[in-house]
Every structure is written in C-alpha cells, then in structure tokens.
Amino acid sequence: RYTFFPGNPRWPVWKRNLTYAIRPGTFSTSDDTAARAVFARAFARWAAATTLSFTESTSYSTADIRIAFFGGDHGDGEPFDGALGTLAHAFSPPDGRLHLDAAELWVVSGNSRLGIDLESVAVHEIGHVLGLGHSSDEAAIMFPTITTGTRRVELATDDIMGIQELY
Ligand code: TQI
Ligand code: ZN
Ligand code: ZN
After folding, report:
1. HSE of 125 in the Cβ direction (CA atoms, 13 Å)?
2. Ligand with minimal distance to 86 CA
3. Is the C-beta atom of 88 inside 6 A of ligand 1?
C-alpha cells in the first residue's frame, strides 16, 4: 500500500501545470535528445493518472522541478556514494529537486543488464517529487527495491490510487 510524506505535502491546487528543467550541460549533445525523451515519457506516465500536466522549461532556475546529475557531495546534505548504493533522491513537495548520482552507469535507451535504467528511476523519483513515499506493494513503482538490470516503468494500481488521493 502507498504512503505519503509526513504531513501529506503536495503541490498546491492552483499549480496543476508543473514545469521541469534538466540542468544545462548535463548530457553530451548526442545523449541529450534521448535523455530528454526519457524524462518526457516518465512525466507522461504520472500525467496520465492525474489532472497534472508537465511542461519542459528551458529555465533551470525557475522551473518547479529541477533535475540534475551530481557526483558525491553536492551541497544539499545528502552526498551521493559513488557507483551503486544510492542511485538518486528527490525532496518532498513543493521543493522540486530531483538529483541523480552521476557515478552510476545510466542506461538511457534500450536494454542493458550492466547499467541502471534511467526511466525506471525517473518514474520512481517523480513519485517522490509529487509527494508519494514508499509502498509495501511489490508491484508498485514506489516499492523501495528494484532488481538491477530490470525496467519498471508502468504505474501499478497502487501508485495510481496513491497519486489520485493526493491530486
Ligand atoms: N534512493 C532512495 C529512493 O529514492 C532515496 C530515499 C530513501 C528516499 N528514502 C527515501 C527518497 C524517502 C525519498 C523519500 O528510494 S535509491 C529505487 C528503488 C532508489 C531506489 O537510490 O535507493 C529507485 C532510487 F525503488 F528501486 F529501490 C530509485 Cl527506483
Ligand atoms: Zn541531492
Ligand atoms: Zn524511493
């Protein structure tokens, strides 16, 4: 079953169209289009289950949701730990920070058993950005473990019930 953060924080009712931006310089030009498409697909999964919509913004400083890849200590009190271990983290609403560990071998498209599937982690972290905590339902995107080399991107009934209770 789904959970929320303490106090059930959520984005305010007047903010149903959230903007997101990926920190400039994150990807090489060759990876950029594919990585942006991954986040667009991940946001679309949550938009389909709610009345929320998500628009990519080119202004990182003013976007509601700010996505960045960082390595090690990056100044928010939650340093990354190098390859594996923590892969990513996100802050509860209405913070909007979504950080990914630059030290991971991210798989941006296709299937590889060697790396971490970016879309799977993106869908999970967006759940946190929107206010979902972890779920005890093994089928849920918000279940706190994932087998390495697998892809888990479809929202489960449990995730949908949780997000619909918030929005
Ligand atoms: N990162 C943890 C996570 O996102 C960080 C974390 C722990 C956290 N407790 C939290 C974030 C509470 C917000 C609220 O769960 S992680 C998975 C999963 C991680 C784990 O790197 O361990 C995914 C990131 F679910 F597969 F285990 C993404 Cl999908
Ligand atoms: Zn961080
Ligand atoms: Zn989580």
Report:
1. 25
2. 1
3. yes
User: Helices in the chain by DSSP H: which ranges?
Assistant: 29-48, 118-130, 157-166
Q: Is 104 a catalytic residue?
A: no
87 Cβ closer than 6 Å to some ligand 1 atom: yes
Per-residue pLDDT of 45-62, as tens digits, reads 999 999 999 999 999 999
* Ligand 1 site, residue 147, Cβ cutoff 6 A: no
Domains and their CATH numbers in the chain: 17-166 (3.40.390.10)
ipTM score here?
0.97
Q: Alpha carbon of 162 to those of 1, 14, 87, 137, 139: distances in Å?
A: 8, 20, 23, 12, 13
Q: Which residues of the chain have pLDDT under 70?
A: 25-31, 110-112, 148
Ligand approaching nearest to the C-alpha of 72: 2
